[in-house]
């Protein structure tokens, strides 16, 4: 079943074989760039569709249904609408910066795709400093946000830009700290190296891994300005924050950047902590067989469901055992599961306040990140006796997290009493 | 290096929140002066929706003002009608039919359910939740609006209550429908509360934000849930005992701190009490005419209604506070003076005191917790 796994890699190899040897490196670059440039807008468009559909279901609505089956053409119609809208530059704004800002925000979002390992051998550039590249590129967005806010010459934009920069800078620190543990354990900054190091065990199944995973993911959510950390946009307070004064395609570019970055955050969380394109090392096919037996013998279920369910479980177990599921399917499945979590957060949580957000970064995430590095060290030094190392680092993390929660517990969170006058 | 320290010079930023703003609940404007994100001065600016309601009311018959009152607080058309009807009855000495009284109370309490559910949803929207609580609230609101439509023919602009009773009796099986809805309401409230009450983010955002001290609340003549959340026991249904409220068994929930969270929770508790009132009213409602003969005569021929010279003030506990209608008669079919005491307007005047020292984000939710409707503020 190697063919399916490597289908995209082989296709590229075939394409390259059509060209003379001297040209091949250049063609290879061009093909990678072309593929990323083609799929990035596609991913963004269908992320908007997914988000609208999922949130709609959470709110007892249907979401887009009118354009195409299940509203599948809605993103295209939105895109056309954005293109034909009037492009308004406010009076007094700096027109050059005003147009540069959304472009500067979109470019790094697409650049992030270069080090995204979509599958086995499916990475555009396997840099040996991949992680460094990730953080270097993703922090450019703070410039673009401030540029956009400043150039708009609007007070809401300035406020949003100020919040945005403060937030992105603050959350970069815990974001980087959470990854230090991964670098320590794997000894590499290369994305491919990190994924391959997780062949036996996804890092999320270690104590430091789960903490790091949550910290990285939440810092990422904060960096791409999504609820509950969408302070720079804060629709109900600042109208649109830094993009208040943007319309038409420029606005669409901001949105595109935001959605691509959220996708990238999910993809990199998958890569760093959830095993990337690796399937689970745990023999889950045993679980599949077990489920098949349970479903088949369940007397309360009607016969058709029993047979179909058992067959499905059996099929899943066989698929799993024979490892027929291609690596890119694993990667996309995990990434989209995280995207769902992102949308879920947006659908359920109200927004934090600016000071509370900063408090979370500096008073909770930062110390916990430092402790996490120590915990990873303990785990690593006790790797001869895995269970002991596991428990020791878990205890260290749990104690420090508990202490931090106690230290940061705000005073007002006491239970309230209400009296009745009769 | 110079050892002297220079304080960083900062400037205050004046921001005009509104009149076109997603969460000022209409065309309301706050001229806020910010130091960074902190509010140092805030001036409410009103009048963008002024439409001369009182002046118009002085040129038309008493009863012709009813459709206009629907547009005051467009969430609570039924209770607005109720207030004006009370004032006219006092002025003209009109008796109310027994069934009419019950129907009015039922409508007014259903309106309270609508208003409090919706305002909680809007409050969460102001807090940044992406519409989910609001849509849950609106799902329940639609069911009540269906009832209103069946009774009055209109979902929001009901124009239903008349001096002496209500315009017409409710259709067949309406009371059973209402009873079913009311009995199901506590389950919805439980679901709603599960989502919100213990939510850590909500508690952090709402608790100890926008505290309104008891004395200030009284001095500023705040009314409604805003006042009761500050711990003042003042509910016109109890104090004044207008209509037939004294027949029902219900309690008045009071807050202790007077912050946004208390206002939210007092509203939830008030809804539970409203459900109790509704259950009692729906059980006890008598049969008979929905409007008294004198009221009917007035409705049929509005220009024959010439109340004696004098004045009357009819007030109700509307969901937002004390809604009062002040009428002065000079013996003609039109009122000489027609004035409305709008709870939203009066409650809004203490906005600055609640907001000073808080962040921009807090101002939005404090405004949301006051519960204003611009139609009523500007009239």
Instruction: Work out the strand percent of chain B.
Output: 5-15%
Separation, N- and C-terminal Cα atoms of chain A: 75 Å
Treating each run of at least 4 consecutive H or I residues as one helix, how many helices of chain A? 17
What order do the strands of the largest sheet of chain B run in, or round the barrel if closed?
Answer: 1-2-3
Give the averaged pLDDT of chain A, no decimals: 82
Q: What's the helix count of chain B? A: 16
User: What is the N-to-C order of secondary-structure elements of chain A (H for helix, E for strand)?
Assistant: HHHHHHHHHHHHHHHHHE
By secondary-structure content and strand pairing, the structural class of chain B works out as: alpha+beta
Helix/strand order of chain B: EEEHHHHHEEHHHHHEHHEEEHHHH
Low-confidence stretches of chain B: none
Give the proportion of residues in helices of chain B. 40-55%
In which range does the helix fraction of chain A lie?
55-70%
Count of β-strands of chain A: 1
Strand content of chain A: under 5%
**Arithmetic mean pLDDT of chain B:** 86
Structural class of chain A: mainly alpha
- Contiguous low-pLDDT stretches of chain A (5 residues minimum) are none
């Amino acid at each position: 079943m190697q063919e399916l796994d490597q289908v995209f890699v082989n296709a590229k190899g075939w394409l390259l074989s059509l060209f003379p040897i001297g040209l091949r490196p250049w063609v290879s670059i061009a093909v990678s760039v072309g593929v990323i440039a083609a799929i990035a807008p596609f991913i963004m468009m269908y992320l908007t569709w997914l988000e609208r559909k999922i949130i709609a279901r959470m709110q007892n609505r249907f979401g887009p249904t009118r354009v195409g089956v299940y509203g599948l053409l809605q993103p295209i119609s939105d895109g056309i609408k954005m293109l034909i809208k009037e492009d308004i530059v406010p009076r007094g704004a700096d027109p050059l910066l005003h147009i540069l800002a959304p472009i500067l925000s979109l470019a790094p979002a697409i650049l992030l795709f270069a080090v995204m390992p979509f599958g086995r051998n499916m990475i555009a550039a396997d840099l040996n400093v991949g992680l460094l590249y990730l953080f270097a590129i993703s922090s450019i967005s703070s410039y673009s946000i401030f540029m956009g806010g400043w150039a708009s010459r609007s007070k809401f934009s300035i406020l949003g830009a100020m919040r945005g920069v403060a937030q992105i800078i603050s959350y970069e620190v815990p974001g980087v700290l959470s990854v230090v543990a991964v670098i320590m354990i794997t000894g590499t900054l290369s994305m491919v190296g990190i994924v391959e190091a997780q062949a036996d065990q996804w890092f999320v199944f270690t104590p430091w891994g789960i903490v790091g995973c949550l910290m990285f993911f939440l810092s990422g959510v904060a960096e791409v300005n999504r609820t509950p950390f969408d302070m720079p946009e804060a629709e109900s307070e600042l109208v649109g924050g830094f993009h208040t004064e943007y319309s038409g395609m420029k606005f669409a570019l901001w949105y595109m950047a935001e959605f691509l970055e959220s996708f990238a955050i999910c993809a990199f969380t998958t890569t760093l902590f959830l095993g990337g394109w690796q399937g689970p090392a745990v023999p889950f096919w045993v679980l599949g067989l077990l489920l098949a037996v349970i479903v088949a013998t369940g007397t309360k279920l009607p016969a058709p469901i029993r047979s179909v369910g058992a067959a499905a479980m059996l099929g899943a177990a066989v698929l799993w055992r024979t490892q027929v599921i291609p690596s890119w399917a694993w990667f996309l499945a995990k990434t989209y599961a995280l995207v769902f979590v992102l949308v879920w957060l947006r659908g359920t949580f109200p927004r934090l306040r600016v000071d509370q957000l900063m408090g979370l970064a500096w008073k909770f995430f930062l110390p916990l990140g430092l402790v996490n590095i120590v915990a990873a060290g303990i785990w690593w030094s006790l790797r001869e006796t895995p269970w002991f190392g596991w428990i020791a680092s878990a205890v260290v993390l749990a104690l420090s997290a508990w202490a931090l929660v106690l230290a940061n517990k705000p005073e007002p969170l006491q239970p309230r009493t209400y009296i009745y006058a009769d | 290096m110079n050892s002297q320290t220079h304080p960083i010079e900062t400037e205050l930023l004046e921001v005009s929140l509104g009149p076109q703003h997603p969460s000022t609940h209409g065309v309301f404007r706050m001229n806020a002066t910010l130091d960074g994100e902190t509010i140092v001065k805030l001036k409410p600016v009103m009048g963008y929706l002024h439409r001369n309601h009182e002046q118009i009311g002085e040129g038309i018959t008493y009863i012709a003002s009813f459709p206009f009152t629907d547009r005051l607080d467009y969430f609570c058309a039924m209770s607005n009608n109720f207030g004006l009807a009370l004032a006219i009855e006092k002025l003209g000495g009109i008796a109310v039919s027994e069934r009419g009284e019950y129907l009015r109370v039922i409508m007014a309490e259903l309106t309270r359910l609508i208003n409090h559910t919706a305002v909680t949803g809007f409050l969460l929207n102001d807090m940044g939740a992406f519409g989910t609580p609001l849509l849950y609230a609106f799902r329940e609101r639609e069911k009540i609006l269906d009832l209103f439509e069946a009774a009055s023919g209109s979902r929001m602009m009901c124009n239903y209550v008349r001096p002496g009773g209500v315009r017409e009796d409710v259709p067949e099986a309406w009371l059973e429908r209402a009873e079913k809805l009311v009995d199901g309401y506590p389950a919805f409230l439980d679901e709603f509360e599960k989502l919100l009450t213990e939510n850590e983010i909500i508690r952090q955002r709402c608790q100890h934000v926008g505290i309104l001290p008891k004395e200030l609340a009284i001095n500023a003549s705040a009314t409604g849930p805003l006042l009761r959340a500050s711990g003042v026991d003042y509910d016109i249904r109890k104090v004044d005992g207008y209509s037939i409220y004294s027949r029902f068994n219900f309690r008045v929930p009071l807050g202790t701190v007077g912050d946004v969270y208390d206002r939210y929770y007092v509203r939830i508790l008030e809804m539970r009490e409203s459900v109790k009132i509704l259950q009692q009213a729906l059980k006890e409602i008598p049969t008979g005419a929905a409007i008294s003969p004198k009221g009917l005569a007035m409705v049929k021929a509005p220009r024959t209604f010439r109340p004696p010279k004098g004045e009357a003030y009819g007030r109700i506990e509307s969901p937002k506070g004390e809604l009062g209608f002040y009428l002065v008669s000079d013996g003609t079919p039109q009122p000489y003076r027609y004035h409305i005491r709008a709870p939203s307007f009066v409650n809004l005047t203490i906005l600055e005191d609640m907001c000073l020292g808080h962040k921009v984000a807090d101002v939005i939710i404090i405004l949301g917790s006051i519960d204003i409707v611009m139609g009523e503020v500007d009239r």
